[in-house]
Amino acid sequence: MRFEIGLSLALCAMAPGGRVEAAERTSAYDAVDPFIGTGGAGHTFPGAVAPFGMVQLSPDTDIRPFKQSYDWAAGYRHGDPTILGFSHTHFSGAGHSDLGDVLLVPFTGEARLDPGEVDQPGSGYRSRFSHDGEVSKPGYYAVTLSDSQVRAELTAGVRTGMHRYAYPKGGSAGVLMDLRSSIYNYPGKVLWSRVRVAPDGTVTGFRQTRGWAPGRKLFFALRFNRKMTAHALYDREEGIPYKGFRQPGRTPADKAQLEGRALEAVFEFGPLDGPLIAKVAISAVSEDNALLNLQSEQAGFDFDALRAQTRRAWEQALSAVDITAPAPMRTSVYTALYHSLIAPGVFADADGRYRGPDDQVHAAEGFTFHSTFSLWDTFRAEHPLLTLIQPPQRNNDIIRSLIASRKHSPHGILPVWQFHGLETWTMIGYHSVPVIADAYLKGIRGFDAQAALDAMVQSATYAPYGGLGDYMALGYVPIDKEPEAASKTVEYAYDDWTIARMARAMGKTDIAKTFEARAAHWRNTFDAETGFIRARKADGAFRTPFDPTAINYGSDYTEGNAWQYSWFVPQDLGGLIAAMGGDEAVVKKLDAMFEYDNSKLDYSHAEDIAGLIGQYIHGNEPSHHVAYLYNYAGAPWRTQARLKQIVDSQYKPTPDGLSGNDDLGQMSAWLVFTSLGFYPVTPGSNEYVIGRPFVERAVLNLPRGKRFTVTAEGLSEAHPYVGKVSLNGKPLTRGFLRHEEIVAGGELRFVMQAEPNTSWAVKPAERPMTTTPYAP
C-alpha cells in the first residue's frame, strides 16, 4: 500500500528561519497520546491499562467476522461511529485478532440484547459517540455514549478493571454483559460459558473459546457498588428453544446460574443518585482466583484511587527516559515508550498461579508469570529496550516465563507466539532464543542459565518444527518441503548464533561450536548471480521463476520478499557485504531498495505490507534494521539521511501515526531507540549502531541508578547530519556504542550540521561488528 506522508515532526514545531523551538514542558505522562495508532494500520487501543497489565479495558467499536476482523484487531478503530461496549482484554498493535473478553454495555431504559446495525441508531445496544467527548490517558479512558447519554469512564490496575458510569438523571440504569462477543468473532467460537449471580450481587463466570489460541479459558468476577433491582440471564444460541428467563424487573431466586454457548446477562439498578461503578477481575485459573484478583488491588470501589495508583505506576515507568524535544516529537516518542511498556503482560494471579501451554494450572515460585509474546517482532528492539530501561526483576520474570512455558509445553520448546499462556504457532523462527541470550549477555542473571540454554538448544533441534530436520541435515530449509524456506533459513541461522554466543559465555564450548557453524547457514541461501537471498529445493537448485519483488503468503518469504530478507544476516554483515560485492555495491543496493519505483506493483493482497519507501517496508519488521546497514559499508551519513526519511514519513502524533501494526511494541521501540540516536541491529552483540538523534536531549534513568545522557547540539531541520560525536567528553570516532558504556552512565554528545560528514566512522575498525566472531 502507499503510505501518505505527513508533515515532518520537526517541521511541526519550526520557528521562522528553521530553528527548532524549545520543547513544551508537559510531564511525560501528559505527553502520551494513546490514540496514536488507533487509526490506519497501527492496531493499538485507547483504553485503560497499567504497565504490563493483565487487564486491558478498552472500547470495542465493531466486531467483524473472518477476514474483516484484521482492521479491528485491537477492537477499536478511530474512524468508526459507534461503540459496542467495553471489554477487558486486547492486543496492543497485533497483526491478528482475538480477545475482547467480558463485554459490558451501560444502557438506560429497555435492554437490547443484540448489537444492532451501525447505520440504524437504536437497533441494538451499540451507541453512537463523538471524539469531542473522548479522553484517553495512560490508565484512563472516558467517552459519552450519545444514544444513552451515559458518561463512561474506565481505569485499570494490573489484574482489575473499573468502570464508572454516570447516567442521566431520572433514568433507569442498567448494564448488559455479552459473553458471545469477541474480537475475531465467528459462529462457534465460544465453546462453553457460564454466568452466576450470588445472593450478594457478585457475578462470576467463565468462557472457553476456540480462536487464535484454541481452547483458551478465561474466568471473571464482577461486583457493582449498587444493589441490583433485577437481573436476567439469557441463552441466545440459535437452533435451540429460547432459554431466556428473568425478564427485567423479575428476579426469581431459583435461577442464579446459566451455562451455554451464547450467554448474556442484564443487570438493572433503577434510578441512581450517583455513578454506578463496576469492578471486574479476570483469571485463567478459576472463578475463585478471579475473586481473589478482584480484592488484590483495592477492596472497595474507589475509582479515583485506582486511577491515581495506575497513573503513578505510569509516571514511574515513563520516567525511565527524560526527553527534551519539540512537542510533536515528544508526544510521538513518549507514546512509543508507553506502547512498549504494555506487553508482555502479567498473566499470573495474585497468588502466583497461572495456566500454562499444557492447559494446566501451575504455581510460579519467585517470579511473576508473563504472557503475550509476539517474538518474531519483539526480539529486534522491544526486548532490547526492556533490558535497558526496565528493572532486572521485570526482565527476569519475562525470561523465567519463557523457560516455564517450555517446561509445560507438550512439545518441549520455547514460545513462538504465545498469549494467555497458550501457543498459537504464528510466524517463524525460535525467537525466544535471542531474547534470552541478549539479556544474559547484558548481565541479567536472575534465572537458571543452564535450564535456559537447554531450552534454547531443544527449541533449535526440534526436527518437526518448521523444517528444522531438513535445516540440520542440509544446512538450509528446502522450499519444496517447507513454505517460507528462505526466511526460515536466515532467521534460524541468526537464532543459532545467539545460542552460540550464550553458550561460549557460559563456557559450553561444544555447544558454541555447533551453533557457530549453523550460524553460517545463511550462505546456503545466498545467490551470487542475483545478489539475493533465495529459496532452494532439496536437490540444491534455487527455485524458479524468481521475482525479488513478489510477496505472497506461504511463498519463499515470510511477510516480505527478497528485497527485505536479503539483508537479514545481522550476525555476519561483513560476510554479507563481501558476498554482495563490497562496500560500494552494498550502498548502491541499499539505495536501490529505498528508491525502487513501486508504481507497477500491487501489494493489496498482503495485509502487513505497509509503510513502503521503495522496497523498504517500515510497517513490517524484516526491514527495521536495514537503514542502519550503511554504517557497516562505511557510509553512516546515508543511514542518517534514511532515518530522517523514515521518521518523517512513518511516524506522526495522530491516530494514523503508525505506518503498520505496532506488534506489541516493536514499531514503537524502533522509534524510541532511533530518537535517541542508536539502535540494536544485532541483539546478542551488546552493540548499538549509531544513527542520528531526533530529540534535543534525553536522559536515560537506568535501573541501577546510573544516568546516560544524549545531547544533540544544533539539531534542526537545517542540520540533519552528524558532524562529530563524543562520549564522556572524548571524541568518538567509531559508529557504535557498547552496552556496558551506556549502563555505566555518562554522556553521548552529537554535534549536528548541514552537510554530511563523510569521514566519520568510515574505516573498517570504526564500524559496528561485521563478522560472526567464531564462524568457520
TrEMBL record:
Domain Glycosyl hydrolase family, first and last residues per copy: 289-753
Molecular function per GO: carbohydrate binding; peptide-N4-(N-acetyl-beta-glucosaminyl)asparagine amidase activity
Keywords, alphabetical: Hydrolase
Domain of life: Bacteria
A biological-process GO annotation: carbohydrate metabolic process
Pfam families assigned to the protein according to its UniProt record, in alphabetical order: Glyco_hydro_92 (PF07971), Glyco_hydro_92N (PF17678)
Signal peptide as annotated in the record: none
GO CC annotation terms, alphabetical: cytosol
Residue span(s) of domain Glycosyl hydrolase family 92 N-terminal: 32-283
Record-given protein name: Sugar hydrolase
The organism of origin for this protein: Melittangium boletus DSM 14713
Lineage: Bacteria, Pseudomonadati, Myxococcota, Myxococcia, Myxococcales
